[in-house]
Amino acid sequence: MKRSTLLLSALLLVSASSGCASSGGFRDAERLTLYRTHAGEPVDSIQYTGHYNGWTPLGDGVFALWTRPSQAWLVELYSPCNEIEYADTIGFRDTNGRLSARFDQVYVGSHSLIPISCTIKEIRPLDVKAIRTAEKDARGKRQVEDSPVAPVPEAPASGT
After folding, report:
1. How far apart are CA 106 and CA 71, in angstroms?
2. Would you kindly state where each structural domain of the chain is located, as residue ranges?
3. Distance between CA 107 and CA 119 in Å, rounded?
4. Minimum mean pLDDT among 15-29, 82-96, 145-159: which range?
5. pTM of the full predicted structure?
6. Cβ partners under 8 Å of residue 72, min gap 6
7. Distance between CA 154 and CA 25 in Å, rounded?
């Protein structure tokens, strides 16, 4: 089987089993700042068993890779790889159980484009609990700001 057919098959399999995580109404710049704030120090590689729970595009060449519901990684790619923002699917070449910064590739696929590959520049662990708390707090704050102001009741007239 040709390499391009294998790659396309892998991307189709990944797209069938993956989904993009919801942003909860955050603008791209806010989301990227939030994730970078809650990212740890860079690591050389991570354990990768061939599947993931989802991914969240965060800007030009940056996305969060969810390996489990409670575990995610901030992945930054070497430029240019701004197609990640518009991708329908992402995939990885056979990594023998590890995904390595500076060596491994992310294959970005879209129904309208031929898949392209981008090299991983950096991988950083994310504090998922802190991100969820910050997102929840921001949604609550937005709801308070967006709710109409209740009228202040008038004081009862005094009978003097």
Report:
1. 19
2. 3-133
3. 9
4. 15-29
5. 0.71
6. 64, 65, 66, 125, 126, 128, 131
7. 37
